[in-house]
Structures are given as structure tokens and as C-alpha cells.
């Protein structure tokens, strides 16, 4: 059993994402006609779940896997992965990171209401680190995939799912300079996220002794810059409510189908420009 290389895995996921975007657009039009706002907020998950049922959930290849000649397998055990592993992977991809962040945010709210100042500060520090670590870990896993052909995502790492080449030309095993460069850029993104989090934390401490007006001004300043380039003023918003400059967000959506902040499923057609800035 031969492991698929990064280029094949990326092409497979890009092919699947293109089809999912098409399905997502059709479902969005249908839901807008019937004016069902409750289902609209779950439309991405619905599309991915239905796609899973007819492909991996039925032990069939996805369109991307069939296109590149790869399949989900355990290279170490030299066998096709079980349906349980596939379901676990799907649930983690759909809800894992987002629900973890929600849990951390709820715990932070609970800790903030504590009367024990020492206990409160310790818990808030731990939860702030967790809030930082979760998205950084997701990005770092992608970095390891680009550089070392590690598993494509944390969800596949937990579920133990690799990709094996089953037909077509054999993979060369070499990592192209383009993928290496992408891995380095992704690593830089991890460092910038950590640095930005540290900057925000220091700023919070500096603002702690100021009056309410000073805190409000500081809060406005923190969101003044795009969280991707840290320079331009946000001019676009994702469906999940995160702000970025238009150029950064449009370029990001062209390459990846997830929000840079919360990893919510994102398609470029649902990016909303901000006017009158």
C-alpha cells in the first residue's frame, strides 16, 4: 500500500470543495426561496453530511479521490479505514474546532464571574492559552502536511486516516518547492497568530487600569486592522462575522474554504463587503 503525496491529496480536496461549493450555492437558493432561516445557518454542514452519506459513508470514493486515484486508508495497518473512523473524522471536521472554541468561551464567561480573584486570573490565563492553541494547532497540522506529508488535518490525525494511492501513476514522493513554500508561509501564519495574541494580551494588561472610555477606545483599536495582514482596515466580513480586508479575504477564500479565524465553511460568494467605512 503506497501513500499518496501532498499534491494528489490537495487536488482531491480541491475537487471535492468545488463540488461542495456548487451544492452549497444550490441549497442556498432553495432555502432563500422557502425563507427557512434556521436551516440556512446549517446549510454547509447539511451539504457536507449529505455528500458524506453518498461517498465515504457508503464506502465509495469521493469525486476528488476518484479523480486522483486515492482512497482513505490506514497506511500503518495496511487496510481501508472503518466506517467508524470516517464518521468520527466527519464529526470532528464539521463541529470539532468550532464546538471546542464555544466551550472555551463559555468557560471564560463562567470564570470571569468568579469572586476568587486568584482562581479567576489563573483560569482565564489557561483558557486564553487554550483559545489560542486550538486554531494554531489546526494551522500547524496543515503546515506539517505541506512540509512532511503528515495527515491532512487534525480530524484525520485523530481518526487515523491516511490516503493511499490505488490507481493511476505512482506518486514520486517528492515535495515540490511550491508546497514547501506554502508550508513555510503557513508556519509564519502560526507565529503571527501567536505574536498577535501576545500583543493583545499585553494591551489588555495596559488598559486594565484605565477608565471605561479608555478601554472602549483601546477595544476599537484592536479590531482596526485586518487579522491576516495586520495592516489594512477591515473592508469585508464572513458569514460567521469575522472582519478582514477585502484583498486578503478574497485571496484566502480562493485557496481555502474555511474562515481564517473560526474555520467555519466559507465560499467566496458569501463574503460581504463593508460600505461607508
TrEMBL record:
Its EC number is 2.3.2.27. GO terms for cellular component: peroxisomal membrane. One of its GO terms (biological process) is protein import into peroxisome matrix. GO terms for molecular function: ubiquitin protein ligase activity; zinc ion binding. It is found in: Peroxisome membrane. It catalyses: S-ubiquitinyl-[E2 ubiquitin-conjugating enzyme]-L-cysteine + [acceptor protein]-L-lysine = [E2 ubiquitin-conjugating enzyme]-L-cysteine + N(6)-ubiquitinyl-[acceptor protein]-L-lysine. Residues 226-263 form the RING-type domain. It holds the Pfam family Pex2_Pex12. Pathway: Protein modification; protein ubiquitination. This is RING-type E3 ubiquitin transferase. It comes from Cotesia glomerata (Lepidopteran parasitic wasp).
Amino acid at each position: 500500500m503506497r501513500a499518496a503525496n501532498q499534491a494528489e491529496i490537495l487536488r482531491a480536496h480541491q475537487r471535492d470543495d468545488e463540488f461542495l461549493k456548487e451544492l452549497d450555492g444550490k441549497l442556498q437558493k432553495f432555502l432563500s426561496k422557502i425563507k427557512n432561516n434556521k436551516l440556512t445557518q446549517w446549510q454547509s454542514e447539511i451539504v457536507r453530511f449529505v455528500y458524506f452519506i453518498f461517498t465515504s459513508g457508503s464506502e465509495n470514493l469521493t469525486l476528488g479521490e476518484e479523480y486522483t486515484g486515492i482512497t482513505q486508508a490506514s497506511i500503518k495497518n495496511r487496510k481501508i479505514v472503518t466506517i467508524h473512523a470516517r464518521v468520527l473524522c466527519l464529526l470532528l471536521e464539521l463541529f470539532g474546532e468550532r464546538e471546542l472554541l464555544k466551550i472555551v468561551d463559555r468557560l471564560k464567561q463562567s470564570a470571569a464571574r468568579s469572586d476568587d480573584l486568584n482562581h479567576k486570573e489563573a483560569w482565564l490565563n489557561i483558557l486564553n492559552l487554550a483559545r489560542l492553541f486550538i486554531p494554531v494547532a489546526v494551522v500547524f497540522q496543515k503546515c506539517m502536511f505541506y512540509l512532511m506529508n503528515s495527515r491532512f488535518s487534525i480530524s484525520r490525525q485523530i481518526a487515523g486516516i491516511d490516503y493511499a494511492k490505488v490507481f493511476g501513476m505512482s506518486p514520486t514522493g517528492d515535495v515540490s518547492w511550491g508546497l514547501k513554500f506554502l508550508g513555510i508561509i503557513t508556519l509564519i501564519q502560526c507565529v503571527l497568530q501567536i505574536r498577535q495574541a501576545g500583543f493583545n494580551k499585553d494591551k489588555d494588561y495596559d488598559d486594565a487600569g484605565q477608565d471605561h472610555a479608555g478601554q472602549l477606545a483601546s477595544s476599537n483599536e484592536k479590531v482596526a486592522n485586518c487579522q491576516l495582514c495586520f495592516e489594512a482596515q477591515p473592508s469585508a466580513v464572513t458569514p460567521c462575522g469575522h472582519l478582514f480586508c477585502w484583498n486578503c479575504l478574497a485571496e484566502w477564500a480562493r485557496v481555502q474554504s474555511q474562515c481564517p479565524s473560526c474555520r467555519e465553511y466559507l465560499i467566496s460568494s458569501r463574503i460581504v463587503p463593508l460600505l461607508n467605512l
